[in-house]
Here is the input.
Amino acid sequence: MPKVSMEGDGTLLPTRFPLEKLGQVSLWDLPGQGTSKIPSMTYLCNMGLKYFDAVCIVTDGRWSEGDDNLLAAIHYAGIRCFVVRSKVDLAVDAGVEDKGWGLAETLSHVHQHLQQQTGLRPS
Here is the structure.
């Protein structure tokens, strides 16, 4: 079972989680990229992403140049990719408290911001 990292680098080694009820399907928890231990330049190759059927990038809203490069490399390699925004609850709280927005307006802003950062549109 995956564990939540409260601080530090989080996942340090690729970890496989087989979904036995789905046959040969597995989820992999990979380390984040862009640190001294896991550099962005070699991430795609070192993590073996070209062998994956799909990749899900999870972001808390801090999209970096390394994230841009990784997304571009994933697209170039022809790998299906999904981008998921985590910590939406914190963004909603901040929207309500800091901006006076309601839930729907805050979620709309979070969605638009992620689209601007990634250049992706909903499929």
